[in-house]
Protein 1
Amino acid sequence: MSAVKAVLKAYFTAELLRNKGIVFGLLGLALWLSLFLAPLTLFRPPQVPAGAIASQVLVSIAIFLAYSSATWDWAWQIRWLLFEGILEHVIASGRSIFILYIGIVPISLMWYAAALAVGYLTISLLVSPPTISVVDPAALVLGVLTLAAVLFGYSMLLGGITISTGTSGPVMEFVGWILPIATGGIVPLRALPEIVQRFALTTPFSYPAELLRHALGLSTPILPLKTTSIVGSFYAFMFLVAALAYFKAQLKKMLREGVKTAWMY
Amino acid sequence: MGFIEILYAETRFVWAGLLRRKSALFTALLYPYILTAFVILVGSTMGSPQLFVVRVGIEPVPFFIVSSFMLMSIMGVVDDIFWKPLFDEFMGTLPYVIASPVDRVLYFVALPLPRLIIVLFIGLSSVLPVMIMYYGVAGVYEAVVVMLLAGFGALVFATLAMCITGALYIAGGETWRSLNVIRPLLMVLLGVFYPRWLMPLTAQYLSWALPPSHVVEAVHRMLAETTGNAVQYFVLLGVATALAILYAPIGSTSIRAWERKKLREGISV
C-alpha cells in the first residue's frame, strides 16, 4: 500500500502540479480536437439536429480517449521505465510491476475525465451541446467494464512488445489510430463496410463499443444484444488473460536476455 | 564550416535516419491515409460527403488526402527546427553543438532542406495515386504541383519557426509542453483541414500571419476551381514569400539570442 501511495504522490506531483502538465495537456487536446472536428461540420445536413450529431461525436471521442489512455499512459509507462533505466530497478526491488499501475490508473482516470470535459466543451462550441440519454444502464456498465478490460489487455500487449523489441513509438502511433477506426470505436460498426464489420467482430475491441452505443441509444448492434453481451464479456476476459500471460512471458525473457535499449522514437 | 558542408552533413544524417527508421517512415507514409479515413468516416456518419462538396467545392477524398499530406509535409520539414535544441538537450549533445564552430543561423536554415525528401516520399505514396484515381493523367500534373507547393510551404515556414523556437527556448521552462500547444494551434490556423475562406474573420486574420497558410489556400483553390486563377495563386505565393523574408531577421536574431543565453548561462545536462 505504501508503494501505491508513493507512486500516486510522485506521479501527481511531478506530472500534474510541478510541470503544469494538466493545463498544457488539456489546452493541446482542445486544439487537436478543433483541428479534426472543424472539418466534420462541413458534412452536416442542416435538417439533422446538431445535438444528435454532437452525441455521436462525443462517444467517438470518449472511446478514442480511452484508447489514448491505454496507449500513452499505460503502455507508454513500460517504455518510459525502460527508457529511463528504471524497469530493472523495479524488478530488482522484488515488487510486482503492476503496483505502479494501481498508482497510475487513478491519475489516468482523472485525466480521462478532464479530457472528456474538454471534448464536450469543444463539441459544444463547434457543433452543439451533445444530448446524452442512457436507454440501457446494464449495457452501459457492461460496455464500460469490457472496454476497460480490453484496453488494459491491449496496453499489456503493447508493453510486452516494447520489452521484447526495445522500441515501439511508431507501432503505438499506428495501432493507436488504426485500431479504434477499424473496430468500430470511432464510427458505429453498422456504418462501416461489411468486410470491416467482419474483421471488427473477430477482435475483442468492437463489442464494448457496440454495447456503449446501444446503451446510449445511438446505434443498434449488428449481432443480437444478448450475443454481443455474452461474446463481448467472454472475449474481453480471455483477451486480458492472454495479454497478461504474454506480458509476464516477456518479463521472464528480459530477465534471461537482459534489458533492450529503447530508442528515442 | 560553410552552408554547403552543413547541408551535406544534414542530408546524410536525414537519409541515414530515414533508412534506419523504416517503421517510422512506414508510419509517416500511412498517416495521410489514416487521417483521411478518420475524417471521412466520422464525417459520413454525421452527414453526407455530397454536402461537403457543395460547401467546399472539392470531393472529400482528394481534399483530405492533399490536406493530410500538406500537414505531414509542413510539420515533417519544420518540426526539427522546433525540436532539435530540446532533442540535443535530452541526448546530452547540446553542449557539443553549442561549442562547435558551426554558425547557428546557417545550421537552422539548413535543417529543413534535406527533410524535403520526406515530402517526396509521402507525396508519391499518397497524393499521386489518389489524384490519378480521381483525375486521370491530369492528376499527375496536379500531384506534382501539390508536392512542389508543399515543399515551398514548408520552406517559407522555416523563418517563422526560427522566431518561435528562439523565443520559446529563451523563455525556458516547459518548452516541450509549450510546443505541444503551439503545434496544434499552428495546424488549426494553417487551414489544412478547414479551408481558410470558410474560417471566422478573426481566425483568418491570425492565419494570414503564417506564411504557409497562403500556400495551403493556393492549393485548396487550385483543387476547387477547375478553370484556375493564376494571378490569385501567384499573389498568395508572393505574400507567403514576403512574410518569410519579413520573419527572417527576427528569426536570425531570435536564434542568436538563444545561443548567447546558452553561452552565458551554460547548459544543464
Protein 2
Amino acid sequence: MSDDERVERAVRVALREAAEQVEAQVPSPGDWRGPRSRGGRTSSRRVPLAVVAGLVTVAVLVAVFVLTGRTDEATIATDPEPPGQVEPTEVGLDEVDLVVVMAIDATADQVAAVREAIAASPDVVRFAEVTSQQVLQELAAVVCPDPDGIAGGVATEEQRAWLSDMLAVGPGRIPTSFRIVIDDGDEAAGARLRDLLATLPGVASVAAPRTDVSVPAEAGASALQTRTFTVGPPPGSTSVGFVCSEGEDPAPDPGPQGEGPAPSVPLPETSAPTLPAPSGEEPADPEAARATIVEAYTTAANGSLPASERRAHIEDSEELGPYMERAAAANRDVAEHQTATLGDIVFLDADRAALIYTLYFDGRMAPITAVGYAVLDDGRWKVSRETVCALILRAGVTCPPRAPS
Amino acid sequence: MERAGDDESEQALAAVYSADFERLVRLAYLLTGSRVIAEDLVQDSFLRLQDRWHDVRAPSAYLRTVVVNACRGHHRRVRREAAAFADLVHDGVQPETPVLLDALARLPYRQRAALVLRFYEDRPEAEIAALLGCRPATVRSHVHRGLAALRKVIT
C-alpha cells in the first residue's frame, strides 16, 4: 500500500468513526416547523441579524452594506438539479472576500473592464455586481430602522471617506461595486486579485470587508440621522431614491439634470414594535409586579453580572443555559457590555405580561428594541422563554422545542 | 411564502425528513465539528426546503447543497475558532482518528469539504465541484492539498 493510499484509508476510517458517533435525535416534523410558525427566523432577516449578532459592528455593517450590497438568499439554488447549482450573480454578505468599489465618476467602459477582469480570473469562485439601486435599498433596510445606531460604529478610513463622498454627492450617484468570493483553497489568491484589480482604471478601492475594520466612523452619521435621502438621477441612468421616515416630506431634489424629484424605492417594513392590548386582568399588585418585571429584565440582560445571577430571572434557564452560552460566545465582544431598559408593560393576564424592551451594547452595536414577555414562574416574574429564544435566534442559535407539559 | 400545505406534500416532506435528517447531521458534523451546530444547521435546511417544497424537484440533493453551504457559512463566521470534534469519544476509534479530525478541522473549508464529500460521502468530483461552486480540477487540488496536510500529522 502506497503512502497516499494509507493516508486516504486513514481519513476514510476517521470520518466514518466520527460520523458513527452521531446519533441525531430526529425530532418530529412538527418540531422543525415550529420555529417558523412561532415567528422565528425568516430568510429575509437572516443576514442582517447574523451580522448584528456580532460578526461586525453596525457601522461596519453599514459601511460594508454600502460597499457591498446584500442578498439574503446567499448561495442557495432554488432547485439544485444538477446538485449544487448556484446563482452566479448572488453573493451573500457573509461570503464576501473582496469588495471592489468603482469611483463615482467611473465610466461604463471602466466598469465593464473590471467586470471582465473579475470574470476571467481563475481565483474567482463567484462574483456579484451591485448596482446603485440595490445598494440604496439595502442601505435603507439597515439605516432606516435605527439611524441613531449608526453613529457609534467603526469603519476603515477608506470606507469612511467613501461613505462621506457618497453622502456629499447624493446616493443617486452611488457607483457600481462588485462582491467577490475567491477560492479559499489558495490563500494567496485574494492578495493576487486585489493587487490586479487595484491597478485598473476607475477602481476606487479593493477591500476585504471582514478584516479592513478599525477606526471610529463619524463622517456621514448626521446625514444618515436625517432619515431622508432624495436622489437625483445620475447621468445616463434611471433615477432612484428612498425616504426612510413617514410623514417627513423631503425637499425635492431636481437632480443633476433638473428633472424633478426621483421616485422612491419601496422599502421593507420598519415599523416599531407594538404591544398587544391588555386583557384587563392584572396581578393583585400590578405596580409591584411591574417593578419585579423591570428587575428581572434589567438583571437578566446585564452582561456584567455572573451568569447564575442573570439566569435566576429567566424562565427555563437551566434548559436554555447552553443555548444562551452559545449565543453569547458568538457575541462576546458586545454581550459583556449589554444592558436593558424597559418601556411600557401591559398585563395579558395575572401571570403573563408583554413589554417593550431595549438592549444597549455600550455603542458597540445598534440597540435592539423588541416586544418581550414576562411570566410568573413559581411566584417570581421572569423573562419568558420565548423572549430569550427570539433574542438568541438573532445570533443563529435555535432553542430546543418546549417540552410537553 | 410557499409552503407545503396539503397532506400529500406534508407526508412527502416528513418522509424526506425521516430519511435524510440523521445522514445530513452526520455530514454537517464532519463539516463543522459540532453536533449541536450540525443539528441546528440541518434543522434550518429543512425549513428552507419546507419554504421551497413546491419548487424543489430533488429534495435530497437540494438539502445536501443547502447543508454544505450552511456549514460553509458557519465556518466563515467562526473561522478557525470552532469547536473541533470536542465531543468525540476516543474509546474504540483508531489512534490516528482524533489527530486526523483535529487537522481536518483546521483546513480551509473547501479542502475540508472536498475530503469529507470525497472520502465519507463518496461523491464524484463533478458533484463535489457543483456543491462547492468550483471546477472539478479545483476539487482535485483541494483533495490533494487536504491529504497532504493530513499526511503531516500521521507520519
